Amino acid sequence: MSADSCNYHLSAETIASDLKTERPIWPFSAYGPGRDAPRQLIGGLPIEQSFEEMRVAHYLGMASGNVERAIQNEHELNNRVTLQIQNVLNDLDGAVKYIVDGDNEHPNRRDICKEFTTATASNEQAQSNPFRSSQPAASAFGTSNPFGGNNAHAPSTSPFARPSNMVNGSSNQPSASQLNPLQPTSSASADISSYSTRGANGVIQSWKGQPVSMIGGEPHYQRADGGGVERMWFPNGPPPPNPFTELPADSYNDVLKEAYAFVSANGAFKDGIMPEKAPKREWVRWDI
Q1: Polar residues compositional bias: what residue ranges (predicted)?
Q2: CB 240 within 8 A of CB 180
Q3: Is 287 within 8 Å of 192 (Cβ atoms)?
């Protein structure tokens, strides 16, 4: 075992155990063994797909009358993941070397993490500077995906990967509103002026009384508790209503209402127990 692999807490035995006996139920996930390693072993599109993204692919297939293709794509992707894992298991020492060799390629995973940390620290200092510019600084790494290729749609360059078609058959991804044919077109949203302010140019300036800045192209606000900056997930207010996220009215009861009222007030579920049923829309907070 090399000194570098020890520094990153990498071992062939751990990788083998992870991929043979500790694999998660959801197969389309990234895998980055070790600690602070410069590369992850498995990941990037099309490998990394959330359950929601796969569901959207099926919705698109249903809408176009070609759901069989969506099912076939899922099977092909599953086969690709299985093959990639088997390639790793067939060359565990090579897998460790591939991760360690990431030290010689830049920007690597460590560079990206360092850049984000530096940007966060710089942002905190800039908040007290009366001469700061209102324009966000560009990232030194552009729009590259730190965990897979030069952009969000680039295939993995890992030698353990094998070429395959994208899950949706194309690297040209439609917008969020185009992806889900079941998404209502209603533009109604709640007034967010009670917890945010915007300048004359429409750019958001404060969130819950705290200053806003852009980090990595996403709006962040300074937490009032001194815990650093935090991303704003709904800077434009609540998303449009979607009836497919609501349960029948008789599915809700006082116990469920109290559970969501508790998490809204305390930031965590009572006794760590999360209800199996989704909340009503009016029980959800969007100022996060």
Answers
A1: 121-185
A2: no
A3: yes
